[in-house]
Amino acid sequence: MKKISLILSLLLAGLWASLAAQDILTIWRNNEAIEFPISEIDSITFKTDVPQYIGEFSVKHDKKVAFAPGNLQYITTTGTWLFAAQQYEYIGTRNMVDNAFADTIDLFAWSTDTDPSTAWGVTLSEDNSLFNGNFVDWGTAMEDRNTWRTLTAAEWEYLRAQRKNASQLIGVGSIEGIHGLILLPDNWEAPAGITFKSGYSDKEYSSVAFEEYQTFTAAQWDLMQQAGAVFLPCAGFRLGTMLAYMQLGGLYWTSSPHAAYGPQFASYFLFMCDGAGIGYDNRSGGNAVRLVMDL
Questions:
Q1: Best exposed site among 36, 85, 132, 250 by fewest CB in 10 Å?
Q2: Which domain, by its residues, includes 14?
Q3: Which residues touch 47 (CB under 8 Å, ≥6 apart)?
Protein backbone atom coordinates (compact mmCIF):
# COMPACT_ATOMS: atom_id res chain seq x y z
CA MET A 1 0.00 0.00 0.00
CA LYS A 2 1.44 3.36 -1.03
CA LYS A 3 1.97 5.78 1.81
CA ILE A 4 0.92 9.36 1.31
CA SER A 5 1.72 11.89 3.98
CA LEU A 6 -0.50 14.92 3.62
CA ILE A 7 0.84 18.13 5.10
CA LEU A 8 -2.07 20.45 5.69
CA SER A 9 -1.15 24.04 6.57
CA LEU A 10 -4.08 25.10 8.72
CA LEU A 11 -3.18 28.76 8.73
CA LEU A 12 -3.19 29.26 4.96
CA ALA A 13 -6.20 31.08 3.54
CA GLY A 14 -8.68 29.21 1.43
CA LEU A 15 -7.75 25.71 2.65
CA TRP A 16 -10.15 23.28 4.20
CA ALA A 17 -10.52 19.55 4.17
CA SER A 18 -13.60 17.38 4.14
CA LEU A 19 -14.22 13.68 3.87
CA ALA A 20 -16.32 12.88 0.87
CA ALA A 21 -18.34 9.82 -0.05
CA GLN A 22 -16.88 6.64 -1.53
CA ASP A 23 -13.87 6.63 0.81
CA ILE A 24 -12.28 9.68 -0.79
CA LEU A 25 -10.47 12.45 1.08
CA THR A 26 -11.03 15.75 -0.70
CA ILE A 27 -8.75 18.70 -0.04
CA TRP A 28 -10.14 22.04 -1.18
CA ARG A 29 -7.69 24.81 -1.85
CA ASN A 30 -8.17 27.92 -3.99
CA ASN A 31 -11.47 26.48 -5.22
CA GLU A 32 -9.71 23.41 -6.59
CA ALA A 33 -10.54 19.92 -5.35
CA ILE A 34 -7.70 17.43 -4.90
CA GLU A 35 -8.84 13.87 -4.18
CA PHE A 36 -6.97 11.05 -2.44
CA PRO A 37 -8.33 7.50 -1.97
CA ILE A 38 -8.42 6.89 1.78
CA SER A 39 -7.20 3.32 1.24
CA GLU A 40 -3.88 4.76 0.03
CA ILE A 41 -3.36 7.05 3.02
CA ASP A 42 -1.44 5.78 6.03
CA SER A 43 -1.23 9.05 7.92
CA ILE A 44 -2.30 12.66 7.86
CA THR A 45 -0.04 15.24 9.48
CA PHE A 46 -1.48 18.63 10.43
CA LYS A 47 1.14 21.34 10.61
CA THR A 48 0.26 24.33 12.79
CA ASP A 49 3.71 25.91 12.91
CA VAL A 50 3.67 27.40 9.41
CA PRO A 51 3.89 31.21 9.15
CA GLN A 52 0.68 33.13 9.56
CA TYR A 53 -0.41 35.80 7.13
CA ILE A 54 -1.06 39.33 8.37
CA GLY A 55 -3.86 41.87 7.76
CA GLU A 56 -6.14 42.69 4.84
CA PHE A 57 -4.83 45.35 2.46
CA SER A 58 -6.40 46.68 -0.72
CA VAL A 59 -3.96 46.72 -3.64
CA LYS A 60 -6.64 47.39 -6.25
CA HIS A 61 -10.27 48.48 -6.06
CA ASP A 62 -11.36 44.85 -6.19
CA LYS A 63 -8.32 43.00 -4.78
CA LYS A 64 -7.01 42.46 -1.27
CA VAL A 65 -3.89 40.75 0.01
CA ALA A 66 -2.36 39.68 3.29
CA PHE A 67 1.36 40.05 4.01
CA ALA A 68 3.89 37.40 4.92
CA PRO A 69 4.98 37.59 8.58
CA GLY A 70 8.48 38.81 7.73
CA ASN A 71 10.96 39.61 4.99
CA LEU A 72 12.01 36.76 2.71
CA GLN A 73 15.24 34.97 3.66
CA TYR A 74 17.35 32.33 1.95
CA ILE A 75 19.78 29.84 3.49
CA THR A 76 22.54 29.50 0.92
CA THR A 77 23.99 26.25 2.27
CA THR A 78 20.73 24.30 2.13
CA GLY A 79 18.74 26.17 -0.53
CA THR A 80 15.95 26.78 1.98
CA TRP A 81 13.51 29.70 1.80
CA LEU A 82 11.86 31.11 4.92
CA PHE A 83 10.42 34.26 6.48
CA ALA A 84 12.13 36.36 9.12
CA ALA A 85 11.08 35.40 12.64
CA GLN A 86 9.87 38.94 13.36
CA GLN A 87 8.50 41.63 11.07
CA TYR A 88 11.19 44.02 12.24
CA GLU A 89 14.03 41.57 11.65
CA TYR A 90 16.53 42.15 8.85
CA ILE A 91 20.02 40.78 8.20
CA GLY A 92 21.75 43.98 7.08
CA THR A 93 25.55 43.95 6.98
CA ARG A 94 25.52 40.26 7.93
CA ASN A 95 24.41 39.41 4.36
CA MET A 96 28.10 39.25 3.41
CA VAL A 97 31.12 37.47 4.90
CA ASP A 98 34.55 37.96 3.30
CA ASN A 99 32.99 39.30 0.07
CA ALA A 100 30.73 36.28 -0.30
CA PHE A 101 27.14 35.55 0.69
CA ALA A 102 26.63 34.64 4.32
CA ASP A 103 24.76 31.48 5.28
CA THR A 104 21.45 33.41 5.45
CA ILE A 105 20.67 36.40 3.23
CA ASP A 106 17.72 38.73 2.63
CA LEU A 107 18.88 41.09 -0.14
CA PHE A 108 18.26 39.65 -3.60
CA ALA A 109 18.84 40.62 -7.20
CA TRP A 110 15.71 40.72 -9.36
CA SER A 111 14.66 37.15 -10.13
CA THR A 112 14.68 36.23 -13.83
CA ASP A 113 14.65 33.24 -16.18
CA THR A 114 17.63 34.42 -18.25
CA ASP A 115 20.15 32.11 -16.68
CA PRO A 116 20.03 29.46 -13.93
CA SER A 117 22.34 31.64 -11.85
CA THR A 118 19.83 34.50 -11.84
CA ALA A 119 16.76 32.54 -10.73
CA TRP A 120 15.61 33.92 -7.36
CA GLY A 121 18.31 36.60 -7.47
CA VAL A 122 20.80 34.69 -5.34
CA THR A 123 23.87 35.73 -7.30
CA LEU A 124 26.45 38.45 -6.68
CA SER A 125 27.01 39.18 -10.37
CA GLU A 126 26.80 42.83 -11.43
CA ASP A 127 26.43 41.84 -15.09
CA ASN A 128 22.96 43.25 -15.82
CA SER A 129 22.72 41.34 -19.10
CA LEU A 130 22.26 38.18 -17.01
CA PHE A 131 18.99 39.59 -15.68
CA ASN A 132 17.30 40.66 -18.93
CA GLY A 133 14.74 37.85 -18.91
CA ASN A 134 11.22 37.47 -17.59
CA PHE A 135 10.45 37.79 -13.89
CA VAL A 136 10.33 34.58 -11.82
CA ASP A 137 8.26 35.16 -8.70
CA TRP A 138 9.97 34.35 -5.39
CA GLY A 139 6.63 32.99 -4.22
CA THR A 140 7.07 29.97 -6.48
CA ALA A 141 10.26 29.09 -4.63
CA MET A 142 8.41 28.60 -1.36
CA GLU A 143 7.31 25.17 -0.14
CA ASP A 144 3.73 25.97 -1.13
CA ARG A 145 4.34 27.30 -4.61
CA ASN A 146 0.84 28.72 -5.12
CA THR A 147 0.35 30.72 -1.92
CA TRP A 148 2.78 33.64 -1.99
CA ARG A 149 3.64 36.22 -4.63
CA THR A 150 5.34 39.59 -5.18
CA LEU A 151 3.31 42.79 -5.50
CA THR A 152 3.45 44.78 -8.74
CA ALA A 153 4.58 48.41 -8.76
CA ALA A 154 0.99 49.51 -9.37
CA GLU A 155 -0.24 47.46 -6.39
CA TRP A 156 2.37 48.97 -4.08
CA GLU A 157 1.34 52.43 -5.25
CA TYR A 158 -2.37 51.71 -4.76
CA LEU A 159 -1.65 50.42 -1.27
CA ARG A 160 0.48 53.44 -0.46
CA ALA A 161 -1.67 56.24 -1.83
CA GLN A 162 -4.92 55.20 -3.52
CA ARG A 163 -6.88 52.91 -1.21
CA LYS A 164 -9.55 54.41 1.04
CA ASN A 165 -8.00 56.52 3.82
CA ALA A 166 -4.57 55.65 2.44
CA SER A 167 -2.79 58.61 4.05
CA GLN A 168 -4.09 57.62 7.48
CA LEU A 169 -2.91 54.01 7.17
CA ILE A 170 0.81 54.54 6.61
CA GLY A 171 3.56 56.06 8.70
CA VAL A 172 7.24 55.82 9.57
CA GLY A 173 8.40 54.71 12.99
CA SER A 174 10.66 52.48 15.03
CA ILE A 175 10.23 49.18 16.90
CA GLU A 176 12.84 48.34 19.52
CA GLY A 177 15.29 50.64 17.74
CA ILE A 178 14.65 49.16 14.27
CA HIS A 179 13.51 51.78 11.78
CA GLY A 180 10.89 51.19 9.13
CA LEU A 181 7.51 51.83 7.57
CA ILE A 182 4.23 50.82 9.19
CA LEU A 183 1.27 49.81 7.02
CA LEU A 184 -2.15 49.50 8.64
CA PRO A 185 -4.88 47.21 7.26
CA ASP A 186 -8.02 48.56 5.61
CA ASN A 187 -10.15 47.87 8.68
CA TRP A 188 -7.65 49.16 11.25
CA GLU A 189 -8.82 49.55 14.82
CA ALA A 190 -6.12 50.65 17.24
CA PRO A 191 -5.69 48.34 20.23
CA ALA A 192 -6.29 49.82 23.66
CA GLY A 193 -3.39 52.03 24.70
CA ILE A 194 -1.92 52.29 21.18
CA THR A 195 -1.66 55.61 19.36
CA PHE A 196 -0.51 55.59 15.73
CA LYS A 197 0.80 58.71 14.01
CA SER A 198 0.36 58.53 10.25
CA GLY A 199 2.62 60.25 7.74
CA TYR A 200 6.30 61.03 7.44
CA SER A 201 9.00 63.03 9.17
CA ASP A 202 10.05 66.49 8.00
CA LYS A 203 13.70 65.61 8.62
CA GLU A 204 15.19 64.64 5.28
CA TYR A 205 17.51 61.63 5.14
CA SER A 206 17.81 61.16 8.86
CA SER A 207 18.04 57.89 10.78
CA VAL A 208 16.98 59.38 14.11
CA ALA A 209 13.86 60.78 12.45
CA PHE A 210 12.17 57.36 12.53
CA GLU A 211 12.50 57.07 16.29
CA GLU A 212 11.65 60.71 16.91
CA TYR A 213 8.51 60.41 14.82
CA GLN A 214 7.12 57.48 16.82
CA THR A 215 8.46 54.40 18.54
CA PHE A 216 6.92 51.20 19.86
CA THR A 217 8.09 48.52 22.26
CA ALA A 218 8.00 44.86 21.26
CA ALA A 219 4.93 44.40 23.48
CA GLN A 220 3.12 47.33 21.87
CA TRP A 221 4.00 46.09 18.41
CA ASP A 222 2.68 42.64 19.24
CA LEU A 223 -0.73 44.20 19.90
CA MET A 224 -0.57 46.16 16.64
CA GLN A 225 0.46 43.06 14.68
CA GLN A 226 -2.44 41.11 16.12
CA ALA A 227 -4.68 43.91 14.79
CA GLY A 228 -3.19 43.43 11.29
CA ALA A 229 -0.37 45.99 11.15
CA VAL A 230 2.64 45.36 8.88
CA PHE A 231 6.19 46.62 9.43
CA LEU A 232 8.77 46.93 6.66
CA PRO A 233 12.24 47.35 8.17
CA CYS A 234 14.86 49.66 6.70
CA ALA A 235 16.79 46.69 5.34
CA GLY A 236 19.04 48.75 3.04
CA PHE A 237 20.41 47.49 -0.27
CA ARG A 238 23.31 45.62 -1.83
CA LEU A 239 25.42 46.66 -4.82
CA GLY A 240 27.62 43.73 -5.69
CA THR A 241 29.31 42.99 -2.36
CA MET A 242 28.79 46.49 -0.98
CA LEU A 243 26.03 46.90 1.63
CA ALA A 244 24.50 50.24 2.55
CA TYR A 245 21.48 52.26 3.67
CA MET A 246 20.47 50.06 6.64
CA GLN A 247 18.32 51.97 9.14
CA LEU A 248 17.98 54.80 6.61
CA GLY A 249 15.51 53.36 4.10
CA GLY A 250 13.86 50.32 2.61
CA LEU A 251 13.99 49.15 -1.01
CA TYR A 252 11.57 46.32 -1.76
CA TRP A 253 11.44 44.68 -5.19
CA THR A 254 8.21 44.63 -7.17
CA SER A 255 7.37 42.11 -9.89
CA SER A 256 7.33 44.92 -12.49
CA PRO A 257 10.10 45.45 -15.05
CA HIS A 258 11.03 49.02 -15.91
CA ALA A 259 11.67 48.61 -19.61
CA ALA A 260 11.41 52.32 -20.40
CA TYR A 261 15.09 52.65 -19.51
CA GLY A 262 16.19 49.28 -20.84
CA PRO A 263 15.84 45.59 -20.02
CA GLN A 264 18.32 45.79 -17.17
CA PHE A 265 15.99 47.75 -14.88
CA ALA A 266 13.11 46.78 -12.59
CA SER A 267 10.86 48.74 -10.24
CA TYR A 268 11.03 48.77 -6.47
CA PHE A 269 9.00 50.25 -3.63
CA LEU A 270 11.14 52.76 -1.73
CA PHE A 271 10.64 54.57 1.57
CA MET A 272 12.73 56.90 3.68
CA CYS A 273 11.88 58.90 6.78
CA ASP A 274 10.32 61.68 4.69
CA GLY A 275 8.31 59.78 2.07
CA ALA A 276 7.64 56.70 -0.03
CA GLY A 277 7.06 55.83 -3.68
CA ILE A 278 8.13 53.76 -6.68
CA GLY A 279 11.67 53.86 -8.06
CA TYR A 280 13.81 51.67 -10.29
CA ASP A 281 17.24 50.09 -10.14
CA ASN A 282 19.58 47.77 -11.99
CA ARG A 283 18.23 44.24 -11.71
CA SER A 284 21.58 43.03 -10.39
CA GLY A 285 21.18 45.19 -7.29
CA GLY A 286 20.21 43.49 -4.04
CA ASN A 287 16.94 44.61 -2.43
CA ALA A 288 14.56 43.19 0.16
CA VAL A 289 11.48 41.10 -0.72
CA ARG A 290 8.17 40.96 1.15
CA LEU A 291 5.65 38.49 -0.23
CA VAL A 292 1.85 38.60 -0.06
CA MET A 293 -1.03 36.19 -0.60
CA ASP A 294 -4.25 37.00 -2.42
CA LEU A 295 -7.41 36.94 -0.33
A1: 85
A2: 5-47
A3: 7, 8, 9, 10
